[in-house]
């Protein structure tokens, strides 16, 4: 159980559990030498896939946490995506936001948006429900990324 | 040389050559049983990569023509993308448009936008230069796709 002072204690238990799974993926990515961003695609609490940024691990320009999760979920009909929530440890870049819009994913739970936030207005305009957890572990992972692997982070966001 | 009546004869010869290369990729994708959309990433006329939609071929949910081309170009610094033109046989979906925005690709040459167009306003808002060729071969490929493989096309755009 989160402590009463936990700023994310407003999260529903299911969202907390699935965001934690995305954070596990982010931590795994960090331990692999990569960009610590993880994601989960879930439908009604059932995990369809987990993913993490693979820039370093696979030399990939397009496998961010969210796109990696979508890719690992495989080919799905539109009816599946429309019942999904996408969990991501960091506010989505335009590519990952666009991927959610392409598949009309109606809801995104975002670990944190202090270190990066570009697409939330676009997503909201298209009716996507956004829940920002402001999770300290997510913030800490990105703080470390920017401090210790800043050059890779800049590459990851085209800066 | 294109005939004087060719509606795409306004294209610069370099753009014509690189769009043709994207069309070759689209045709290859069609012959493989896939979605006939191809793309090329080029810098100053030099081809960095070619790509095509791999939904059918690789069971992929994220390898559209444009993202496949970006992936095949490998990890590149921001300075490279900022000098690139992205050629695509069909107007980009939100994911592929978002990918171009992520990497701040300044210019996109679009084969056609009659059969699909969702992201051009967004791209233009962000200052991306768009050139629409209205190329008959691109239109014909998508017409065939929608007629003969309509279910896969719907899956590809989350419909």
What does this structure look like?
The structure is a homodimer of 159-residue chains. Chain A has helices spanning 13-31, 55-58, 65-72, 78-81, 94-102, 120-125, 136-148, 150-156, and strands spanning 38-43, 46-52, 84-90, 107-112, 129-132. Chain A has eight helices and five strands. The termini of chain A are far apart. In chain A, α1 packs parallel to α7 (136-148) and α7 (136-148) crosses α8. Chain A has a five-stranded mixed beta sheet. Chain A has one domain (13-152): Cytidine Deaminase, domain 2. By secondary structure, chain A is of the alpha/beta class. In chain A, β3 (84-90), α5 (94-102) and β4 form a beta-alpha-beta unit. Chain A binds chain B through residues 55, 59-63, 67, 70-71, 73-78, 81, 93-99, 101-104, 119, 122, 154-155, 157-159, and chain B through 55, 59-63, 67, 70-71, 73-78, 81, 93-99, 101-104, 119, 122, 154-155, 157-159.
CATH architecture title of chain A:
3-Layer(aba) Sandwich
What's the domain count of chain A?
A: 1
Using CB atoms under 8 Å apart, which protein chain pair has the greatest interface?
Answer: A-B, 34 and 34 residues
Shape of chain A: globular
| Number of strand elements of chain A | 5
CATH topology of chain A: Cytidine Deaminase, domain 2
Average pLDDT level of chain A: 96
Pathway (chains A, B): Pyrimidine metabolism
Protein name (chains A, B): Cytosine deaminase
Subcellular location (chains A, B): Cytoplasm
Main location (chains A, B): cytoplasm
Topology of helices and strands:
The structure is a homodimer of 159-residue chains.
Chain A: H1 13-31, E1 38-43, E2 46-52, H2 55-58, H3 65-72, H4 78-81, E3 84-90, H5 94-102, E4 107-112, H6 120-125, E5 129-132, H7 136-148, H8 150-156
Parallel strand pairs in A: 3-4, 4-5
Antiparallel strand pairs in A: 1-2, 1-3
Domain CMP/dCMP-type deaminase (chains A, B): 13-130
InterPro entries (chains A, B): CMP_dCMP_dom, Cytidine_deaminase-like
Subunit structure (chains A, B): Homodimer.
């Amino acid at each position: 159980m989160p402590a009463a002072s936990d700023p994310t204690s407003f999260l529903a238990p299911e969202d907390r559990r699935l965001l934690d799974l995305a954070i596990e993926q982010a931590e795994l990515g960090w331990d692999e030498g990569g960009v610590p961003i993880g994601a989960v695609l879930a439908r009604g609490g059932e995990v369809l896939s987990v993913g993490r940024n693979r820039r370093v691990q696979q030399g990939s320009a397009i496998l961010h946490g969210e796109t990696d999760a979508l890719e690992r979920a495989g080919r799905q009909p539109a009816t599946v995506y429309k019942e999904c929530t996408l969990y991501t440890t960091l506010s989505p870049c335009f590519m990952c936001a666009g991927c959610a819009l392409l598949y009309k994913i109606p809801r995104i739970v975002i670990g944190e948006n202090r270190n990066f936030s570009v697409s939330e207005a676009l997503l909201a305009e298209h009716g996507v429900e956004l829940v920002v957890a402001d999770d300290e572990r997510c913030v800490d992972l990105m703080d470390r990324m920017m401090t210790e692997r800043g050059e890779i982070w800049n590459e990851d966001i085209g800066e």
